[in-house]
Amino acid sequence: MTISTDEDSGGSAPTTAPEKARALRALHVPGRPLVVPNVWDAASARAVEAAGFPVIATGSAAIAPVLGYDDGEETPVEEMLAAIARISRAVGLPVTADMERGYRLEPSELVERLVAAGASGCNLEDSDPRTGAMIDVDEQIAFLAAVRSAASGSGADLVINARVDTYMRGTGSAAERLTESVRRGRRYLEAGADCVYPIFAAEAEAIRALVEGIDGPINILFRPGTPSLGELATLGVARVSFGHGLHEAVQAYAARMLTAIRDGESPYPPGLPTP
CA-CA distance, 150 to 219, in Å (whole number)? Predict the structure, then answer.
């Protein structure tokens, strides 16, 4: 599988807000997924940029603990937006921000503040981050449509990645969750979303059914047990993200290094570049 790089955003590097949004949207190609290793601060964003990826994606569950909070919109919105702004300033790539369900901002204010923070896109989920309850589909459609309208009217544009939480928060059999995910996904695209993100969908057959049933760009969360990046491309996926998995792995690695120091050992394994 060929991973999209910053050379695939089309022509010269985008610099204005509308150009960055267009470049981000154009990278959502079924069968040639946009791979976004989610970041948590400016340093990790710069590392992703240096590795040649074309887009920076934040993860709320990674940023929240960095700022001293739990995920689930426990981070004050001002602090989350400030973190997104620092990341945007640190890189020259389009930034898509995980905004959970909007931190209780009205759609117009959400768009205004995201654009001010330098974001070119956002994730918006359809369950209540505080209770875990699924949001009524018509309510979510109205919310997404209002965000799209505000973004279109802003002149800056935003790429909306509409998360479907049926596999994480929903009830019923696997077949029922698939049916509901397809139903929600299709309606979210009709409301103005650019991509649908059925988080925790992991079985190859379910992913294929989602791609075919929703009939639009699909984002899959990569985690242990998920099909390989190449297989996801073959299944027609348009975007692959990593959530807070990379941040968790980095934290676990740091914990092992600290344990080695505590035990009087070198924290640097043989062959590991040292400072």
Answer: 23
At residue 13, does pLDDT exceed 80?
Answer: no
Strand 159-164 vs strand 95-98: parallel, antiparallel, or unpaired?
A: unpaired
∠ Cα 39 159 118 (to 5°): 55
Q: What is the residue-wise DSSP string for 81-101? A: HHHHHHHHHH-SS-EEEE-TT
**Domains of the chain from N-terminus onward:** 6-243 (3.20.20.60)
The sign of the dihedral angle between the CA atoms of 37, 108, 217, 220 is positive
Task: Evaluate whether 223 touches 203 at the Cβ level (below 8 Å).
Answer: no
- The rounded distance, in Å, linking the Cα atoms of 100 and 130 is 10
Residue type, 263: D
Cβ within 8 Å of residue 258, ≥6 positions away: 267
- Give the helix ranges, DSSP H, for the chain: 17-26, 42-50, 60-67, 77-90, 107-116, 137-154, 166-169, 174-191, 204-214, 229-234, 245-262
- Which are the contacts of 165, defined by CB distance < 8 A and separation ≥ 6? 125, 126, 127, 134, 199
Tell whether pTM > 0.85: yes
pLDDT in tens, 96-124: 999 999 999 999 999 999 999 999 999 99
